[in-house]
């Protein structure tokens, strides 16, 4: 078991720890366990967006899946970047207790969401070239209680990759 897996296992086992509602998942990098609630890319395949420059196209369902996975993670990273642009306290290391850091991050995110809701035009958006996407997770959903690699989860990822591949091939044949 890798270090990342131990961190996740510890995080979800705590009383007020990480909550992953069933039916949802975190996009993780290849160092994490591909198990229920934690979706990783395929190992040994192109992944990072810069590897797709110069109009390179995917050669397999695994490469296409990794391309889309990387793009989605990039959007998430851009959201964190957006928060860091707005709130200087998030840009530097802090020596606050973890409990306080979590409250600071939550407060910054809440203020950010309030600003977005109340302002007809946010000037900070002009500095970003992609739209900010929000998703709502049900508060009372059943949550994942343990992390382990499973045949069912790997099959689900393979089926998702195959569906993406089929749709991509069909869209290329239409043009």
Automatic annotation (TrEMBL):
Could you tell me which residue ranges the DDE Tnp4 domain spans? Answer: 20-113
Cofactor(s) annotated in UniProt: a divalent metal cation
Q: Where does this chain mainly localize? A: nucleus
Q: Spell out the GO cellular component terms annotated for this protein, sorted alphabetically and separated by semicolons.
A: nucleus
Cellular location(s): Nucleus
**GO MF:** hydrolase activity; metal ion binding; nuclease activity
Key words, A-Z: Hydrolase, Metal-binding, Nuclease, Nucleus
Question: Is Glycosyltransferase among the key words of this record?
Answer: no
Question: What family is this?
Answer: Belongs to the HARBI1 family.
Protein name (record): Uncharacterized protein LOC108663616
Organism this protein belongs to: Theobroma cacao
Q: What is the name of the gene encoding this protein? A: LOC108663616
